[in-house]
Structure formats: C-alpha cells, structure tokens
Amino acid sequence: MFGCSNDYVWLSKDAMTTEPRHPHLLKMTDPPTIVGHRCVACERVAFPPDPYGCEKCGSPASTFEQWDLQARGSVQAVATVHRHHRSTPVTPFTVGVIGLVGGPVVKAIVEGDGVVVGSTVEGFLAPDEQDDDGNVIVDLHFRVVE
Ligand SMILES: [Zn+2]
Q: What is the reported pLDDT for 87?
C-alpha cells in the first residue's frame, strides 16, 4: 500500500505505477531516450523500428542493432489540433514534426507556446491517462528549450 508522502515522485523510473505507452520504443531516462535501430550494413538510423528491413539498402531487420536516440531536435513543421477522437490530450494541442539530432523524424505533441518551424525542442515524459489498474501511462512529449 502506498503512503501519502509528499515526496512521492510519480515520474520516477522507480515508481512501480508509471510506464510508457510503448515500452519497447522509449526508455524512461531523464531526458527520455527514444529506442530506434541502426542498419549494420549501411548505418541508416531509423525510428520506429522497421519490421520489413532497411529502407535504404534492403538488409533484413534481423541485421539491425538497437540504437538509442536523444529526444532532442528541431521542429520542421507544426500544426494545431482542435478536434480529436479521444478525450486526451485535451484540445487544442500542437503536433510537431521533429527532426531528431540523431537523424530520424518523429511526430509528437509539443507543449507550450511559441512553437515555430526551427524551434529546438527536447522530450519529456508526460502523464497521459491511467489504465484500469491505476497505472499511469506516460507518453513522450516535447517542449521548446531556450
Ligand atoms: Zn541499410
């Protein structure tokens, strides 16, 4: 049973009740680490992992090695979502196309104001919703860094 201590850190990786929505794609480090892969043959780095093999040289996915990607990059495109089919995240929210410093491009929610093409953004773990067992599910969001 959990106590009511004020120093309970609910995004701590030690907290038993917090988990990423896609545990195989995200490590709960601080800042979080995106788990991609690298083709051993041509060194192409990709995210998310491609089950069909390398898009560049055709090597089978069995030759890929896991490749940690820093959750940091530059905004290449930005859009504000006003209507959404789920109750979370609450609209309006901003989605950015982010070119990671490690190469791959991801789409993710970018929180805060002043997100423009060219903004440097960094990832963090945002609590999204609780599952039926009360576990907090976290997603990777980004925010603008100065
Ligand atoms: Zn390749």
A: 80
Nearest 10 degrees: CA dihedral of 42, 44, 45, 50?
-90
Report if residue 96 sits inside a domain: yes
CA of 36 to the centre of ligand 1 (A): 14
Provide the domain count of the chain. 1
Summarised one tens digit per residue, pLDDT across range 43-78 is 999 998 888 999 999 999 999 999 999 999 999 999
- CA–CA dist 98, 75 (Å, integer): 5
How far apart are the CA of 81 and the centre of ligand 1, in A? 35
* CA–centroid distance, residue 63 to ligand 1 (Å): 9
The one-letter amino acid code at 73 reads: G
How far is ligand 1, taken at its centre, from the CA of residue 66, in Å? Answer: 13
What is the rounded distance in angstroms from the CA atom of residue 120 to the CA atom of residue 29?
20
Which residues have C-beta under 5 Å from ligand 1, the single-atom ion?
Answer: 39, 41-42, 44, 54, 56-57, 59
Classify residue 129: in a domain, yes or no: yes
What percentage of the chain carries pLDDT values higher than 70? 88
Domain range spanning residue 126? 71-146
